[in-house]
Fold each of these.
Amino acid sequence: MTVDEGSEATVDDAAEELADGSDDEAESRTQRVVEFSESLIRGIEIVAAYVLVVLFAIGVFDLSLQIGEQAFTPNIFDPEVVVGFIDTALLLFIIVEVYQTVVAYTRRDETRSIVRLVLYTGIIAIVRKVIVYRTDTFATKTDALLTAAAYAVILLSLGALLYVEREAVSDS
């Protein structure tokens, strides 16, 4: 081996080490950026959870006011008023389910439990729509029928998905 050959090998080795070092540095920089963005997302998830807590508190206060206003009037027995109370209460349940979903994401819970929460939220939302459903609010009977059919399909689909999810859990 000549001196030139040895020095070429050393230069090549040094170039490889520099390239490996710059790759490690780039990976480290990328990792720091990813960790920062994950922390930022987690912080925003926590803020979203607090916003939902505030919305829930406002909703409970509003429902209490609605009931209080109607409690000593004959309207308390009006089906539309009672359906309005139920609608508001179900909306509060939806807020709670969304809150639980956000908390589950923040805790990094198992995906299955998050899916279950989303399914429950969807079922509550559709049940809410079904309870307040009124055919007289549609322009035609066909529109009312199509809407009712859509609610039924969505509710049955969500129910089937929840059943499948529960069966998958019991099989594991």
Amino acid sequence: MFSAAARDAAVARHMHLFPSRLIGPLRFLNPVALAKASAVDLKHRRTAPPTAHPAPRPWTVER
């Protein structure tokens, strides 16, 4: 939910309602809201560029 709220305004509004105590936990975690958040995260995962992993550092510890 948190990562989806950072990427989508509708999920962010829904996220805002819960800590503001305008909706309860059952409405916050309803299947429609969770599906929307999952869809936003999956869409981001598909469009995100692959992360480049840095080259491993050689260990040059001498004793």
Amino acid sequence: MAGHLVRRPSAHPPSVRTKTDTDHLAQEEVRTPMDMRPLDERLSTSPQISPEDMPAIVAAGYRSVISNRPDGEVEGQPLTADIKAAAEKAGLAFAHVPVVGGQISDDDIALFRSTIDQLPAPVFGFCRTGTRTTFLWALAHAKDQNATTLIETAAKAGYDLNGLRARLETGAA
């Protein structure tokens, strides 16, 4: 998803700055992802990002990026290799755990949880809309959190997990 330009530094955290922020001390412009959505203290999610978003992700305090989107879903989508290179250049750890919506397996969930646990926190996750990252997060926590809490947390971030309730209640992977 394309970001917008803001001036730094500002009294507002990078995720809530707007074009109307005025700061006569600003020396550089930073492109911020338009949609950072926290899921817990370790992970936030977002729709598609681009390599140019990495400075803003760093400025927001993230230490890692995880991609849950396979390459080639749509024409013009940024390549994982380009996002990885930009993340690493910005000093971020990077992981790629691609999944296809509606086909998330127990192995996918286990790999996602293991990867998140190993990445330096906080982690910035993304896919096309942020939904797959949110699904993976909820399913990865289904054994240690109740389904209602996971569904409510996801709803606060703008994602509807009611269709996953039965799977969340069985404890997923």
